Amino acid sequence: MTLQNLIKKFELEVLTDLNDKEVSGGYSGDLLSDVIANTNKNYVWITMQTHLNIVAVASLKELSAIIIVMNRKIEDEVLEKAKSENITILRTDKTAFQMSGMIYGLGVT
Amino acid sequence: MEEEILYNQSFQIRGRDFVNGGSVSVQIKRILKELGVKPEVVYKVSICCYEAEMNVIMYADLGTLDFTITFDDVIITLEDEGPGIENIELAMQEGYSTATPEIREMGFGAGLGLPNILKNSDDFKINSEVSKGTKLFFKIHLN
Ligand SMILES: Nc1ncnc2c1ncn2[C@@H]1O[C@H](COP(=O)(O)OP(=O)(O)O)[C@@H](O)[C@H]1O
Ligand SMILES: [Mg+2]
Which CATH superfamily includes the segment(s) B5-141? Predict the structure, then answer.
């Protein structure tokens, strides 16, 4: 499974440059300590959080992408930072529950 | 017994500097990867450093993180000037946090930082003096 597959299949909006990567797993959460402790390289991270610190989390854990749910607004400043650190940010109108289920249904765990 | 130092670098962390939150941990991770340290070790160091770094940003004024690699370990000491911790036993409990509502809204303040450093390190020490600051020490074996 690649990011490109997910983007096509679920019509995800690409808010930064797309660095197509393998997706090796996924995690859903809004508490940063939880996400830091439970994600691994090439995971997609499904979240409501949209502030600047999500970029450092994705960078530190080498996540494939951050997927922002419920079409939440995200500041340009955050997108600029993500671009400069080569982090892909995607967005969906789905809820975290729905998005997780959809991706999990493809066999990503 | 003195262990031979293979790498050493110090980093400053400023209190309330959320904009750069995590940047020291990202630098440390990059160094470890460049040196070919095992992914499991990088994983643990990343978790511990991030939590320690964010605690300085959230609660203290200024911190100095000292990062050392020896033949056997990654060793981190982080000394900060700040309010210190009154009750360390309480601070070590999962779920205990004094984070403000604004900080919690950002997804910090789950009260898992110190417990996760303890869980992911092989040696952990914390000392604190109220109104002075906090000193954190942790070590992760390379093998
Ligand atoms: N460097 C520090 N200086 C002062 N207080 C600290 C520091 N680190 C931790 N604390 C205190 O210990 C509590 C627990 O820390 P932690 O386990 O990291 O959880 P959290 O950061 O989510 O609150 C904090 O809420 C804070 O009261
Ligand atoms: Mg913390």
Answer: Histidine kinase-like ATPase, C-terminal domain (3.30.565.10)
Note whether A90 and A64 are within 8 A (CB). Answer: no
Domain A3-105 fold = 3.40.1390
Kindly tell me the number of DSSP H helices and DSSP E strands found in chain A. Answer: 5, 5
**Is the distance from the beta carbon of residue B109 to the nearest atom of ligand 1 less than 6 Å?**
yes
| Averaged pLDDT, B77-91 | 98
**Interface contact A53-B21, CB threshold 8 A:** yes
Asked if B133 and B81 touch (Cβ cutoff 8 Å), the reply is yes
pLDDT tens track for A8-42 = 999 999 999 998 999 999 999 999 999 999 999 99
Q: Which tokens belong to A98? A: 């729905």
Domain boundaries of chain B, sorted by first residue: 5-141
Alpha-carbon gap: B17 to the closest alpha carbon of chain A (Å): 11
